[in-house]
Amino acid sequence: MAKKKQAKQEEIKQNILSIQSWKRIGIMIIMAMLNKFTQWSVNLIAMMQSFHLLTKGSDNPMLTKIGEQLAQYSLSIMRFLSFHSDERPFPFGGPSPIDAIKSILKDF
């Protein structure tokens, strides 16, 4: 019984000292902050879309596409934060939502 407890304590110590674990935690903190900014951006787009609907009678296709890109980016962050995926979102990996948004803006 004492050996199991000691082995468990050693395992916990190894996990705490793991550089990989601390790197992921650091990236998760940064990604959580970026996700909050992304959510604010989506809320701003929602307000702009509402204004556009009231004044023009329809949504703005460019804002719809930008909102979709931001939603996809937020989803990739949430998948990483929830440990559903090990793929690091931009700027640590993955595609850049900025490039996709630039491409959308070029089309309009």
Notes on the structure:
With 108 residues, the chain is an all-alpha fold. It has one domain (27-107). Helices cover 80% and strands 0% of the residues. It is built from 4 helices and no strands. The chain has helices spanning 2-17, 19-56, 61-81, 97-107. Helix 2 runs antiparallel to helix 3 (61-81) and helix 3 packs antiparallel against helix 4. The longest helix has 38 residues, at 19-56. It is elongated and about 75 Å long. The protein starts with a helix and ends with a helix. The mean pLDDT is 92.
Percent range of helical residues: over 70%
Q: Summarize the main sheet.
A: none
Q: What portion of residues belong to β-strands?
A: under 5%
Would you report the number of β strands? 0
Distance between the termini: 69 Å
> Which residue ranges are poorly predicted, with pLDDT under 50 across at least 5 consecutive positions?
none
Our count of helices gives 4
The chain-level mean pLDDT equals 92
Structural class: mainly alpha
Shape: elongated
Number of domains: 1
Order of helices and strands: HHHH
Descriptors:
single chain, 108 residues, 80% helix
Brief overview, please?
This protein is mostly helical and 108 residues long.
Secondary-structure blueprint of this entry?
Blueprint: H1 2-17, H2 19-56, H3 61-81, H4 97-107
Helix pairs in contact: 2-3, 3-4
